[in-house]
Design goal:
Shape: globular
Radius of gyration: 18 Å
Number of strands: 12
Distance between the termini: 39 Å
Strand content: 15-25%
Number of helices: 13
Number of domains: 1
CATH class: Alpha Beta
CATH architecture: 3-Layer(aba) Sandwich
CATH superfamily: NAD(P)-binding Rossmann-like Domain
CATH topology: Rossmann fold
Strand order of the largest sheet: 3-2-1-4-5-6-10
C-alpha cells in the first residue's frame, strides 16, 4: 500500500490515479476532505498521519504552503519511520537546488535513514489557475515580469515521476529536477490560453509590489519574496530545461499548451 499526502491537489490527484491504474493499493490523505475518498490528516500535526501509515510500503510527502512556518519535517519523518514505512518520496522545489529556498525539508528526509527520492519541480503550469476567474469573467490576465520565461512543468508529469519513484526502488537516492520542455513567459502563457478559449485575453503586467500582495494571501513573506526573485531574475539554471522527466518516463515533458487543453474549461 502507498500513502499519498496532498491527495486532492494538482499533483496528488493525478498521482493517486496513476498509482491506482498501475494496480497499487493507495491511501489518499488530505488536510480537508469533501467526501469519503480520502483520510484526513495534517502534516503540521504529524500524529494525525499515523492511522494512514499502517502497512504502507512507501509514502509521498507533499507539504502545504504554510508548512515552512507551521510544520516540522523531522517530526513527520519520525512518524513515518516509527510506522515502519521504508521509503519516502518528497515533493521539494527547484529553488532548493538553486539555493533560493531553504533545504531543511530535504535534509530531514535525506538524513532520516529511510530510502528516499527527492523531486524538485520548477514553475508549475497549474499556477495559471490563479488567472482563471479573471479570464472567465473579464478576459484579463495579470502577472508580473511579463516577458521573463521559465519552463512550466505539468503536474501530470510530476505525478507520473512520483509514481515511478514510489513503485521502483531503482529511484532510491535520486534527486530529479522537473521542468517543462521549453521556457514560456507570462505573456506567452496568456497567448496560449487565448488560443484555447478562442477569444482575446488582455494581458496586464503587475508591479512586484502588486504581485507580492497577491502571493502573501497564501504563502509566508520569505517564500513570496524568493518566488518573485525567481520569476523576475531567474538564473541560467532556473531557465534551463531539465531532461529528468524524459529520463524517468521515456517520453518528453508535456508543454504548457497540453496542460491548458486539458484544463481549458477553467478559463471559459
Amino acid at each position: 500500500m502507498i500513502v499519498v499526502t496532498g491527495a486532492t491537489g494538482n499533483v496528488g490527484r493525478p498521482l493517486v490515479q496513476a498509482l491506482t491504474a498501475a494496480g497499487e493499493q493507495v491511501t489518499a490523505v488530505a488536510r480537508r476532505i469533501a467526501d469519503g475518498n480520502a483520510v484526513q490528516a495534517d502534516l503540521t500535526h504529524p500524529e494525525t498521519l499515523e492511522p494512514a501509515l499502517d502497512g504502507a510500503k512507501a509514502v509521498f510527502l507533499l507539504t502545504a504552503a504554510d508548512f515552512l512556518a507551521n510544520g516540522n519535517m523531522e517530526d513527520v519523518v519520525e512518524v513515518v519511520r516509527a510506522a515502519g514505512v521504508p521509503r519516502v518520496v518528497l515533493l521539494s522545489s527547484q529553488g532548493v537546488g538553486t539555493k533560493r529556498h531553504p533545504s531543511y525539508l530535504e535534509d530531514a528526509v535525506t538524513q532520516s535513514g529511510l530510502d528516499w527520492t527527492i523531486l524538485r519541480p520548477g514553475n508549475f503550469a497549474s499556477n495559471a489557475f490563479q488567472w482563471a476567474e479573471s479570464i472567465r469573467t473579464e478576459r484579463t490576465m495579470a502577472a508580473p515580469y511579463a516577458d521573463v520565461a521559465l519552463p512550466a512543468v505539468d503536474p501530470q508529469d510530476i505525478a507520473e515521476v512520483a509514481a515511478a519513484a514510489l513503485r521502483d526502488p531503482s529511484h532510491v537516492g535520486a534527486i530529479y529536477t522537473l521542468t517543462g520542455p521549453a521556457p514560456i513567459s507570462p505573456r506567452q502563457q496568456a497567448g496560449v490560453i487565448e488560443a484555447a478559449v478562442g477569444e482575446p485575453v488582455r494581458f496586464v503586467e503587475l508591479t512586484r509590489e502588486e504581485a507580492r500582495a497577491n502571493l502573501l494571501t497564501f504563502m509566508p513573506p520569505p517564500v513570496a519574496d524568493s518566488t518573485l526573485d525567481i520569476l523576475g531574475t531567474p538564473t541560467a539554471e532556473e531557465q534551463e530545461v531539465s531532461l529528468d522527466i524524459e529520463q524517468v518516463l521515456g517520453r518528453p515533458a508535456h508543454p504548457f499548451a497540453d496542460w491548458v487543453t486539458r484544463n481549458v474549461n477553467a478559463f471559459r
